[in-house]
């Protein structure tokens, strides 16, 4: 852990079907890291405040995705992970 950053707060484990991960808050931002441990893509409805969220994939891809009715609809690739930063937490 870098000495220049505050400790993470409100750490929560996530485990739903083949998707596991965690979420935490740090310096006023909320982060969510999700991993799909299955051999097939996994749809995952992530509950967030309305607006948009930035989704980062392992290959360095990043996209702004809409949050509709409080849900960000993700599809996590097989044996892969994504990191999500809700736009309202920037």
CATH topology: Immunoglobulin-like
Taking all Cα atoms into account, the compactness measure Rg is 13 Å
Poorly predicted sequence stretches spanning 5 or more consecutive residues: none
Helix content: under 10%
What is the number of helices?
Answer: 0
How does the helix and strand content classify structurally? mainly beta
Overall tally of domains: 1
Mean pLDDT: 86
Distance between the termini: 21 Å
Major sheet size, sense and barrel closure: 6 strands, antiparallel
* CATH class bucket: Mainly Beta
The fraction of residues assigned to DSSP E strands is over 45%
Instruction: Give the strand order of the largest sheet, numbering strands 1, 2, ... along the chain.
Output: 1-2-3-8-5-6
Rough outline:
globular
Q: In the CATH classification, which architecture applies?
A: Sandwich
Number of strands: 8
Q: What's the SSE pattern? A: EEEEEEEE
Task: Summarize the SSE layout with pairings.
Layout: E1 9-16, E2 19-26, E3 29-36, E4 42-47, E5 51-56, E6 62-67, E7 71-76, E8 80-86
Antiparallel strand pairs: 1-2, 2-3, 3-8, 4-7, 5-6, 5-8
Structural summary, described in words:
The chain is an all-beta fold and 90 residues long. The protein has one domain (9-89): Golgi alpha-mannosidase II (Immunoglobulin-like). It is 0% helix and 61% strand. It has strands spanning 9-16, 19-26, 29-36, 42-47, 51-56, 62-67, 71-76, 80-86. A six-stranded antiparallel sheet has the order 1-2-3-8-5-6, with no helix packed on it. Strands 4-7 form a two-stranded antiparallel ribbon. The protein is globular, with a radius of gyration of 13 Å.
